Amino acid sequence: MKPTLALIATGGTIAGLAEDSAAPANYTAGVVDAGALVAAVPPLRELANLRVEQLCNVDSSDLTPAHWLALARRVQALTTDPAIAGIVVTHGTDTLEETAAFLALCHRGDTPVVLTGAMRPANALSADGPANLHDACRVALAEDSRGRGVMVVFAGEILPALPLSKARLGLQPYVAGAGGALGMAAGRPRFFHPHQPSPAVLDAAACPALPEVAILYVAAGTPPQALRDALRHGARGAVLALPGSGTVPRAWEETIAEACSAGIRIVRGSRLASSFVPSRRQDLELGTWAAGALAPAQARVALIVAIAAGLEQLPAALAAQAR
Ligand code: SIN
Predict the structure, then answer these.
(1) Rounded-to-integer distance, Cα 233 and Cα 293, Å
(2) Is residue 201 part of a domain?
(3) Distance CA 70, CA 85 (A)
(4) pLDDT, tens only, 281-294
(5) What are phi and psi of 105, to 5 degrees?
(6) DSSP assignment letter at 292
(7) How deeply is 35 buried, as exposed, middle or buried, from its count of CB atoms within 10 A (0-12, 13-18, 19+)?
(8) Contacts for 190-197: CB closer than 8 Å, 24+ residues apart
(9) Most CB contacts within 10 A, which of 48, 97, 244, 290?
(10) Which residue among the candidates 4, 10, 13, 95 is catalytic per the annotation?
(11) Residue 290's closest CA among 275, 272, 303, 277?
């Protein structure tokens, strides 16, 4: 008997259509619906019985933390259904790393959750979506995927949900930090090593809303007023994309220390394309947290989750990376 796979579609380029299939740079994301995405990949029907649902159909730049919460609640409900062997989420690539991080920090149980997308719209010549979707479904159904939590499958690779960044254009836009890929997705999925998924820190079903958290890019001479402005507009935390490995300019120290002592959570991140921000003595002095291996977009997700869950540090597995 075939296993049952749940597929939740959210939009993105994988569901995009170009005006001219030979010139796919001009296209609209989030047009093709979930049923048509699946129908375009006939071998999927041989792999599993598919339960397809459409959460939304948008460019991922239009997703918000409210969408993450709705998606995480839906995933949580599906993971408690013993009939579901795996879950695939189709998503735009531009903010996929944020949704993947959020789902990873909410995920419970052994059911694999796999996010995928595409860099070329559905009707482009050589569209990459069908192969990515097929690979994602195979990974979600693989026995060896059970207990590995949330993963991203793209361009033949199995990547961790955290740390992950969209770092470039091209058919493999993601970079997975020092740990690299978890395995190969093309053909029979193969994992390179055991993987410890981040333990769940937020119960999405019990969380009514997520706090506002800002990301502030700190260039030479950027005044700390930017932080005061963000807090005045309701931010309960901020990730600073700082120079180098998270160096706080002297001009920012007082404002940061004041904010932290007022209960605002501030994460020291790095604006480098590839960096690691370790904890320093300065974190104790100012009250900041270090982003570790997380780039600012994922550090913001971790901070949102930490505030929503009432944690006194970034989620444990991530804090360990910051040491
Ligand atoms: C999007 O993120 O929705 C558009 C870009 C993409 O999917 O590659």
Answers:
(1) 28
(2) no
(3) 21
(4) 999 999 999 999 99
(5) -80, -10
(6) B
(7) middle
(8) 191/144, 191/148, 191/158, 195/148, 195/149, 195/160, 196/317, 197/104, 197/107, 197/147, 197/148, 197/149, 197/150, 197/161
(9) 97
(10) 13
(11) 277
Helix then strand count (H, E) for the chain reads 10, 16
Residue with the two structure tokens 């559905």? 122
Residues 160 and 50 in one domain: yes
Q: State which ligand 1 atom lies nearest to the alpha carbon of 30.
A: 3
Q: Which atom of ligand 1 is nearest to the CA of 173?
A: 8
pLDDT digits (tens, 9 = 90+) for 98-113: 999 999 999 999 999 9
Q: Are residues 123 and 267 in the same domain?
A: no
Strands across the sheet with 49-58, in order? 49-58, 4-11, 84-90, 113-116, 150-154, 157-160, 183-184, 190-191
Q: Provide mean pLDDT across the span 188-193.
A: 93
Nearest CA to ligand 1 atom 7: 92
**Ligand 1 site residues, Cβ closer than 6 angstroms:** 11-13, 29, 59-61, 92-94, 117, 119
For residue 247, the CA-to-ligand 1 centroid distance in Å is 32
Choose the final residue of a domain: 157, 191, 225.
191
The reply to whether 41 and 145 lie within a common domain is yes
Rounded percentage of the chain residues whose pLDDT exceeds 90: 90
pTM score above 0.85: yes
Residues 186 and 215 in one domain: no
Domain count, the chain: 2
Of 141, 158, 191, the last residue of a domain is 191
203 in a structural domain: no
Whether 10 sits among the annotated catalytic residues: the reply is no
